[in-house]
């Protein structure tokens, strides 16, 4: 397969600043966009392949890539200025990175969801709020290809972009004491999937039998930033069957 | 080799240097609140710095050793005793099978660390033995220790067994024995009536009003009861912003001080979430995490502004001191 077209990272200058004494933030603009997201993904991938001495890990977010470092190792046991050294390494890296012009080629992860009933107790609430029928809510929710912008809040929890704004619904007045793992919810213009059983105030419209967080796996999060995702409606029988396969 | 828990104490968890490499998957780092203290405890028993030990919170557990072990206690002084007799901290202690370690009143600080030569041999999850309470993984079955738990201990390093043999040969037939030497108390966070916590300006510092910035550096804050391993709530001057622009969720870290809409700051601690969306007014320097870890609820603190260069100077100085300490203990073991 030919490589998709790429361009160097020169169009949007990247700002560097310290987050304390053990992290540097690379700031790529200040609004959510797929272009910025692709640049962050490209830099993160390049960094993983070319780690600098003292590199610990990185966290991609909507407009930032935060790079954690060990000041002792980055300074070569105190011989260099740790910040200057890490900043220099990152500037060099930024000049090397090539950003794909678009990422439609990235694979799409299918998330089976059983909508409504006991799996999605708020489907009717969302339908009433939006003036749609529950069937229309499901149709609109399963139509788009979502983009995983970042993972955060809880292990494996994806921040998704791409929800149809017609589905926007406010959070619940009273958060639930415990939302089951796999619950698919809507809060404002966002949709997401609970990865662990936690308290939560999102309107729950369905649930997936897929495990988003598997601590015993080498790659513990089912999803990662940069992936594309589609929700696929399933029946309660299929839910139970798939759930058994997951265990 | 193992020890069993007779009484669990308030919150006793297995911790190691932390779960690194998975923050991008939303997995928190965990690890000790007072990393310096656990590091020192490990060094004292000849363990590598990333070995797993126990973090003991305020009301300590009662532990019975099921074999002869070399142990060390660091961090808070929670009045530790062995078979009912007071035992000194910050030094290697040889205990024999059947010895009982217990704790009393918290004399200073609130988190003590117990290292055992060889380290705690609980299974690694995602490369670490640290307990992640909310996800129920790592540590001992993913939870705080309970009465009846039997915690396995790995075999000691060569240095650990050497220190152990030396100590027992000098004190034969005693149920337990400690070295006369110890590491200096000045190498640990020392509690004062009002802790001075050094911090750097955070990415959103400039969004706060000048009055709030000034109040932040000059006034006292109190640690509220809604404080735990995730973060400390602070009571003090309410901090106001002049710039209310929305903040997109982004990474945070240990020591990040964020300010929710109510204006009262929260310091993120060892079990903090990986990302957040509140303005980050300052970032506490790594060297002062120990000081924070030992602050009790109701404890008072004041923030002091430092530069990044000063923060790194303190960091590198502490790291050098710890390496010297490790070397000194190796030499002591050889020449005793």
Can you put this structure into words, describing what you see?
The complex is a heterodimer of chains A (247) and B (336). Chain A has helices spanning 34-49, 71-74, 82-96, 123-130, 134-142, 236-246, and strands at residues 6-8, 15-18, 23-27, 55-60, 64-69, 98-100, 108-115, 146-151, 158-161, 176-179, 183-187, 190-193, 198-200, 203-207, 228-233. Chain A has 247 residues and is of the alpha+beta class. Chain A folds into two domains: 6-100, Gyrase A, domain 2 (2-Layer Sandwich), CATH 3.30.1360.40; 108-246, Cyclophilin (Beta Barrel), CATH 2.40.100.10. In chain A, the strands form four sheets. In chain A, strands 9-8-15-7-14-11-12 form a seven-stranded mixed β-sheet. A four-stranded antiparallel β-sheet of chain A has the order 2-3-5-4. A two-stranded antiparallel ribbon of chain A has the order 1-6. In chain A, strand 2 and strand 3 (23-27) form a beta hairpin. Chain A starts with 5 loop residues before the first strand and ends with a helix. The mean pLDDT of chain A is 92. Chain B has 336 residues and is α+β, with helices and mostly antiparallel strands. Chain B has two domains: 2-188, no CATH class; 194-305, Cyclophilin-like (Cyclophilin, Beta Barrel). Chain B has five helices and 21 strands. Chain B has helices at 35-44, 158-170, 210-218, 289-293, 308-335, and strands at residues 2-7, 11-15, 53-57, 62-65, 69-77, 81-82, 85-86, 93-95, 100-102, 108-116, 150-152, 176-178, 194-201, 221-223, 231-235, 250-251, 256-258, 266-268, 275-276, 280-284, 300-305. In chain B, the strands form four sheets. In chain B, strands 13-20-17-18-15-14-21 form a seven-stranded mixed β-barrel. A six-stranded antiparallel β-sheet of chain B has the order 7-6-9-4-1-11, with no helix packed on it. In chain B, strand 6 (81-82) and strand 7 form a beta hairpin. In chain B, helix 1 (35-44) runs parallel beside helix 5. Chain B is elongated and about 70 Å long. The mean pLDDT of chain B is 95. The interface between A and B is large, with 49 and 41 residues.
């Amino acid at each position: 397969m030919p490589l998709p077209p790429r361009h160097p990272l020169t169009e949007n200058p990247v700002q560097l600043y310290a987050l304390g004494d053990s992290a540097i933030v690379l700031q790529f603009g200040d609004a959510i966009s797929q272009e910025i997201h692709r640049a962050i993904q490209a830099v993160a991938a390049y960094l993983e392949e070319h780690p600098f001495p003292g590199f610990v890990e990185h966290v991609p977010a909507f407009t930032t890539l935060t790079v954690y470092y060990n000041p002792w190792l980055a300074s070569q046991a105190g011989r260099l200025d740790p910040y200057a050294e890490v900043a220099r390494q990152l500037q060099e890296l930024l000049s090397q990175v090539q950003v794909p012009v678009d990422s439609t080629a990235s694979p799409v992860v299918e998330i089976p969801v059983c909508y409504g009933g006991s799996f999605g107790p708020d489907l009717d609430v969302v339908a009433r709020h939006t003036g749609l029928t529950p069937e229309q809510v499901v149709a609109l929710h399963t139509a788009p290809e979502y983009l995983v912008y970042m993972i955060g809040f809880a292990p494996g929890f994806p921040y998704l972009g791409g929800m149809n704004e017609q589905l926007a619904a406010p959070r619940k007045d009273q958060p639930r004491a415990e939302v089951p793992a796999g619950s698919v919810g809507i809060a404002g213009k966002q949709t997401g999937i609970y990865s662990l059983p936690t308290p939560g105030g999102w309107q729950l419209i369905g649930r997936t039998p897929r495990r988003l967080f598997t601590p015993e796996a080498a790659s513990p999060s089912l999803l990662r930033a940069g992936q594309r995702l589609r929700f696929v409606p399933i029946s309660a029988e299929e839910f139970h069957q798939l759930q058994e396969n997951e265990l | 080799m193992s020890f069993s828990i007779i009484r669990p104490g308030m919150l006793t968890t297995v911790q190691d240097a932390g779960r690194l490499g998975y923050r991008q998957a939303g997995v928190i780092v965990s690890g000790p609140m007072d990393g310096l203290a656990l590091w020192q405890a490990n060094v004292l028993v000849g363990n590598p710095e990333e070995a797993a030990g126990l973090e003991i919170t305020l009301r300590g557990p009662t532990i019975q050793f099921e074999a002869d072990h070399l142990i060390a206690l660091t961090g808070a002084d929670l009045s530790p005793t062995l078979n009912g007799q007071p035992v000194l901290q910050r030094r290697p202690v040889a205990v024999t099978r059947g010895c009982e370690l217990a704790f009393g009143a918290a004399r200073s600080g609130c988190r003590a660390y117990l290292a055992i030569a060889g380290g705690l041999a609980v299974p690694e999850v995602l490369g670490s033995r640290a307990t992640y309470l909310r996800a129920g993984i790592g540590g001992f079955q993913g939870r705080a220790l309970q009465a009846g738990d039997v915690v396995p201990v790995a075999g000691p390093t060569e240095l650990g067994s050497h220190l152990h043999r030396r100590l027992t040969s000098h004190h034969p037939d005693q149920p337990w024995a400690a070295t006369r030497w110890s590491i200096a108390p000045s190498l640990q966070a020392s509690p004062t009536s009002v802790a001075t916590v050094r911090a750097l300006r955070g990415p959103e510092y400039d969004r706060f009003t000048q009055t709030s910035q000034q109040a932040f550096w000059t006034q006292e804050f109190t640690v509220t009861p809604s404080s735990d391993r995730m973060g400390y709530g602070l009571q003090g001057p309410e901090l106001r912003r002049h710039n209310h622009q929305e903040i997109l969720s982004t990474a945070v870290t240990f020591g990040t001080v964020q300010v929710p809409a109510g204006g009262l700051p929260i310091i993120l601690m060892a079990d903090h979430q990986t990302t957040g969306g509140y303005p980050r007014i300052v970032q506490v320097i790594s060297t002062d995490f120990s000081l924070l870890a030992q602050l009790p609820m109701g404890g008072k603190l004041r923030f002091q502004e430092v530069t990044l260069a000063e923060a790194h100077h303190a960091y590198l100085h502490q790291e050098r001191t710890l390496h010297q300490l490790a070397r000194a203990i190796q030499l002591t073991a050889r020449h005793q």
